[in-house]
Specification:
By secondary structure, the chain is α+β, with helices and mostly antiparallel strands. It folds into two domains: 10-193, no CATH class; 274-409, Histidine kinase-like ATPase, C-terminal domain (Heat Shock Protein 90, 2-Layer Sandwich), CATH 3.30.565. The protein is built from ten helices and five strands, in the order H-H-H-H-H-H-H-H-E-H-E-E-H-E-E. It has helices at residues 10-47, 56-75, 85-105, 112-125, 128-148, 153-237, 242-269, 280-290, 308-328, 377-387, and strands at 295-300, 334-341, 344-351, 391-397, 400-408. Helix 1 packs antiparallel against helix 6 (153-237) and helix 4 runs antiparallel to helix 5 (128-148). It starts with 9 loop residues before the first helix and ends with a strand.
């Protein structure tokens, strides 16, 4: 049983599989004993008159022995526990009835062991109520058959007590196995409940942080955006250099972009879906529209389904690289390439040198968005990638700059 109405968890499935494997191992240990019982019953039937034959009581002995051996061999087979319950009841019933038939014809032999084996199988394999009913019926049938065959009352009582002890021991074994299975399943459900409690606590803390972030950072950015909008209008009204107007305009756009990212971060903390590689085209469209970055996306090959964290890191890598391109090389043609090879996915962002610009890694470039931001975006992204086994490389390439990210799939 599971604690929820949904599908069982991974731990619960593993606990059920372990219980099934344990049952098979126990049956493997007892299987030689089952073959020994078949051998003993066969030897007793062959040496006690009337012996097996083709006529009269000998034919009945032959048929009963054949049915018993076949049913017992099927009952101790490895896949018997996986068969339908109706099939199991029928097989155990055939074992018992054949054993009772042998006792009726050969009451003074060891064929009574056949009925005891059927009682054991009924109590270990069948549903408890069915096992009790079938065991009682087989024991009663054995007693009647033995008395009909002139067995003494002492012998009949001994056979009855033997069946009762076998049934009791089988019930103890069955209850012990069921208790162990249930304990492991409860431990799995307890671990799942603890994980769920931890996730709930983490979600509550993330919601609290999201509220703080929204109340502080988002409000501050909104205020800055309003002030910059006013500065842009004032610069347009009053005589001001074109560079000043452009700087105010780009700063306003950058603040608006930061506000959007802050809102996305708040949404992520609250459990909302995060962007991924499926959103790269819309990301590039935003950079082309808002920051005039001539960026194009190229995809090589069919991309596999990615973990959410990997997809998010690739998206953030493209976002950071495009921001740097807009900051240090405005107007430079930029290519974003996504490809999958050798169980790893690679994202590369490459831009050329902007017309009239100096080296892309030159810290003295005054144009574009240079100087805006802390400059730690790629370093932080590299650390996050290393935690999932990925890499990030950034540096000059031909006449431009390239950022390359690789991550396992």
């Amino acid at each position: 049983m599971t604690t929820s109405a949904g599908p069982p968890s991974r731990r619960t499935v593993q606990a059920l599989a372990a219980a099934h494997q344990r049952l098979h191992r126990q049956r493997e240990l007892l299987r030689p004993l089952g073959w020994a019982v078949i051998a003993v019953v066969t030897a007793a039937a062959l040496t006690t008159p009337p012996t097996p034959g083709l006529r009269g009581q000998s034919a009945v002995v032959s048929a009963a022995l054949a049915f018993y051996a076949a049913a017992t061999a099927l009952a101790i087979s490895d896949h018997f526990v996986d068969r339908a319950s109706g099939v199991q009841v029928a097989v155990v019933a055939v074992m018992g009835v054949a054993g009772v038939g042998l006792v009726a014809i050969q009451p003074r032999s060891a064929t009574g062991l056949a009925v005891g084996a059927a009682v054991w199988m009924a109590m270990t394999r069948l549903r408890l109520d069915r096992g009790l009913i079938l065991s009682a019926a087989l024991t009663l049938g054995q007693d009647v058959a033995a008395l009909h065959g002139s067995s003494t009352a002492t012998a009949v009582l001994a056979a009855t007590l033997l069946n009762a002890l076998l049934a009791l021991f089988a019930y103890v074994v069955r209850a012990s196995r069921a208790a162990q299975d249930r304990t492991e399943q409860l431990l799995a459900e307890l671990a799942d409940a603890r994980d769920e409690q931890t996730r709930a606590a983490a979600l509550a803390e993330r919601s609290r942080i999201a509220s703080e972030l929204h109340d502080v950072l988002a409000h501050c950015l909104s205020g800055a955006a309003i002030q910059l909008q006013g500065a842009r209008l004032l610069a347009a009204r009053e005589p001001a250099e074109a560079g000043v107007q452009e700087a105010v305009q780009r700063a306003s756009e950058l603040v608006n972009d930061g506000l959007a990212n802050a809102r996305a971060a708040v949404g992520a903390l609250r459990g909302e879906p995060m962007p991924g590689i499926a959103d790269l085209e819309s990301l590039l469209a935003g950079f082309r529209r808002d920051l005039l970055v001539p960026a194009e996306l190229t995809v090589e090959g069919a991309l596999p389904a990615l973990p959410a964290e990997t997809s998010l890191l690739l998206y953030r890598g493209a976002q950071e690289a495009l921001t740097n391109a807009a900051r240090y090389a405005p107007g430079a043609a930029t290519t974003v390439m996504l490809r999958y090879t050798n169980a790893r996915i690679c994202l590369s962002v490459e831009n050329g040198r902007a017309s009239g610009s100096r080296a892309l890694d030159c810290p003295t470039r005054p144009q574009g968005l240079f100087g805006v931001g802390g400059g730690h975006g790629l370093a932080g992204l590299r650390e996050r990638l290393e935690r999932i086994g990925g890499t990030l490389h950034a540096g000059p390439h031909l006449d431009g700059w390239r950022v390359e990210i690789e991550a396992p799939v």
